[in-house]
Write a structure and sequence with these properties.
Blueprint (H helix, E strand, L loop, with lengths): L18 H15 L5 H11 L6 H33 L1
Length: about 90
């Protein structure tokens, strides 16, 4: 049996790509520029991406999105505390 290997087509990747990990990374990086507002979405996408291989992008996205989400929670809690002090203090 003769095996004919066809050359790789243009634009076709030789390595598999984790779509959820990539999407989570893009959204997590967007969260950096949006004061963390979209970071929770990136966190969910990257956590889903951890279920698939390769996991590299999903791991990086999870870390970035978790930091962005923590940043968002911190600022929301400060705003709530300031509002409560202003109206009840």
């Amino acid at each position: 049996m003769i095996r004919h290997d066809t050359p790789q087509e243009a634009g076709e990747s030789a390595r598999p790509l984790n779509g959820y990990g990539l999407a989570g990374l893009i959204i997590a990086v967007m969260g950096i520029f949006c004061a963390g507002l979209v970071s929770p979405i990136g966190l969910v996408m990257s956590l889903v991406g951890l279920r698939f291989r390769p996991r590299g992008l999903a791991i990086i996205a999870t870390i970035i999105a978790a930091l962005g989400t923590a940043y968002l929670i911190f600022w929301i809690s400060l705003d709530v505390l300031a509002w409560r002090q202003h109206h009840h203090g």
